[in-house]
């Protein structure tokens, strides 16, 4: 075996052969990779992001844009009546639209403001029935006038009426339509909050002029999608034993005083489509007392809803004579404060609507009424019934 027994352990092993070629090859490959990475970085930095952009135009110089870039300008909307000093504009006008084609064929669209042609702010045209829900709690200043009693509704310069501006939009379909009005909001804070939160947005809410925190409740109701009315106290037959409250419109007072009390009530809130009576059997039956009040309501672009409790009401005749939009309630829903009884009244309202094409029901903001209406309206749509705002069901001589 040629083994030296006297040599130290391990000294008789054969030396390992070195492989310098492999090591040199690895170093070369690593160096090449580093060079490639650096070259790629430099290329990317100098090449740009791949978008072919058009240079900003030079003043008083016109040039055709390159084929890869397409510039469009959103055409302005048709002109409409606007406040003096304001340029009417559509909701998408005032923008430059620039489309840039990338190296891989993708299109990138960039929107930027377009310089105004005139001076002053741009007025976005909102000529439509109803309001955008995002601004429904804000009044249209063009439909208000400043008075000693506050800001009162008026017809706008372009002929638009508050009953159109603040009405709840509906489908316009020919079918069974029902409006449900829940009244007395503002008198009870908990009842008002419950009605706004639990009633479907299709239900119209009527606020009592003598209520509390009306402006706050109005804004919350409008943000919730509700059309709203303002309830004004009118003289009942058994007045003063039955007193509807302060500033009641009376048959024994002058027309000027009644108009003053009406305006005081109107100034409490904004964004309502019309006036609804609170009591008022005697006042509604007196043409001499009712005519100037109805005329003022009509000329301000509001509707009048008669709650239907007075068989002697002269509302229809006076409203037609003054060209005031009006409507009558067909069913009082909560004469009996019981959920089942109210649901039965709602069923009766449905039968009236199917017979006549439409119907209006009124109730007060009692817990039982709110519960019954919330339950019944959920099932109504399944039977082909559309719940609409009361403005949609008015008799209006000026409606096209």
From TrEMBL:
Keyword Membrane: yes
Domain of life the protein comes from: Bacteria
GO biological process: carbohydrate metabolic process
Region Disordered: start-end pairs: 53-98
Compositional bias (Polar residues): 58-74
Ranges that cross the membrane: 21-46
CDD domains membership: CE4_DAC2 (cd10936)
Keyword Manganese applies: no
Entries under PANTHER family matching the protein: DIVERGENT POLYSACCHARIDE DEACETYLASE SUPERFAMILY, UNCHARACTERIZED YIBQ-RELATED
Protein name: Polysaccharide deacetylase
UniProt organism field: Rhizobium grahamii CCGE 502
